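Sample A.
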Amino acid sequence: MAAAKPDAGVPDSGPDIDKMSFEDALAELERIVRGLETGQQKLEDAIAAYERGSRLKQQCEARLAEAESRVQSIVARADGALALKDDQ
């Protein structure tokens, strides 16, 4: 008997989340959410997808926090030039 093909939106483990770009992680998370919203997945597949989605969400949040910190470290000086906060 042939093995069943995984349902759409269910990652088969996928790439290493820690090595994914923010954009790739967000795109995969969106695919997982769409797959879960259909309700067509088997229970075990849905649980695996949810778990991976949770890890992707954490990775995206960490990347956003890092980006926000970097942006906040740049400030406009009185003369309009940009500088790092420490360079004032």
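Sample B, a different protein:
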Amino acid sequence: MPDFRTLLCSALIAGTALGGVALAPLAAATSADKPAAQPTVPAPVAEEGKPVAGSDAKTSDHTPTSEKPAPAGEAATPAASTQAGAPPAAQSDSAEAELARGAYLATAADCVACHTKPGGKPFAGGLKIATPMGQVVATNITPDPDHGIGRYTEADFENAVRHGVRKDGSYLYPVMPYVSYAGMTDQDVKALYAWFMHAVKPVAEAQEETNLSFPASIRPAMMAWNFIASKETPETGDSSTYDPLRRGRYLANALEHCGTCHTPRNFMLSEKQDHYLAGTSLGAWYAPNITSSKTGGIGSWSEEDLVAYLRTGHVAARAQAAGPMAEAVEHSTSHLTDADLHALAAFILKVAPMEDEADHTARDAFGKAVNEPDIRTKGPQRIDDLAEMDGPHIYDANCAACHGRDGAGTQDHYVPSLFANSTVGAGRPDNLIMTILKGVDRTAGKEHAFMPGFDGQSNVQRLSDAEIAALVNYVTATFGSGDHHVTPEQVKSLRDDSKPVNPPAKGQ
């Protein structure tokens, strides 16, 4: 898989570089419509988004024809603070409302997840996002004038967020999901700009420059990719007044950019519009099919199930969020209003069903509690006994204390059952392997979910590739979709793909 991703990435960059030459006259005409570049002020801008290169959102409408909302009217009247003659109190109230709106939008767009490194200051950048062509370094997007975006005008900000072009005219890499943010309304872009400029604390901290290998290092190549790739069409009107279905579509496509991770991509690394939310690999983790398919997706879920998952990352007897989805829940969806959660869930559950190549039965429909005999010996195992155990013994030694020998977890569901569990029942073992390697550490509201990892940095037990393969095969055969015959080589491949590029913060 890594070699395939590298091939695709190379094809994208090389192809767009050649396309940039062929399309130069057209690109020059297009650039005349954009704000003039100001190379004398090379302040950085938000450059990174979700850790998937080549992100591209939908221009097609995935809402069923019979349920499409009526078109909205024109854009809302500007805020009172910008209107001539408004009383000071009205201006203050309007300014506060705009800042509050901007703060909520930044959370819904999950800006902090990529623009804050472990242990770093909010939005100061520095997070390293691994790609096949090297590490993309998230930039400082605080209003610091020298190291952040403090000298950006609103037009500069809009050009970066919606079109992927920095103040100095350089093109951003589509790790930053500007193709999704392109769908934001003018009012929301304005509120987001106001919040970053007036509410975020400036951080005078420079970050290292992104330095990708050739030909990805040629930023102008992105000009041709941007011309070819589809983008969200900007919405109109006041997004806070949309009907629920339209609001859900706006949240899913423009702000939360669900398709960035859950939609497979074509050879140009653009999202396949006819496979919207059908699931795809993110490298080590797998973003599953979340269409309305009752076998391959989440069509058997109720709206309340999905709302609970987005709010807490946990739905008993269905699923638990780990990896990148746990981060999305912690930083973004758990902070959405109840109305927005219901709107988002209602929209996703109406997405056209797409069957899955690996999942032919609902992932959370497998297994039951088992009555396994106690296989423990009378004497304790010596700590210097390095003999590798088989699957049942590895489970008993490392998992049974929390999940139970019967796999039922705890009565309060803090420790989930291993049967009726979408990770264990999935037709692909990737996420189960990654959960065992990396564990779970997710906070949503007042709820904290924790499971230790068992990789080479584990403080509990460091399991080898062969031991994890044996454990995965035992767990899926006993509680899930069957023995997947996972090999140590498969585990090693995922382990290598998931090696951290960001050192943990001191004290962690």
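Observation for Sample B: The CA atoms of residues 437 and 454 lie 5 Å apart.
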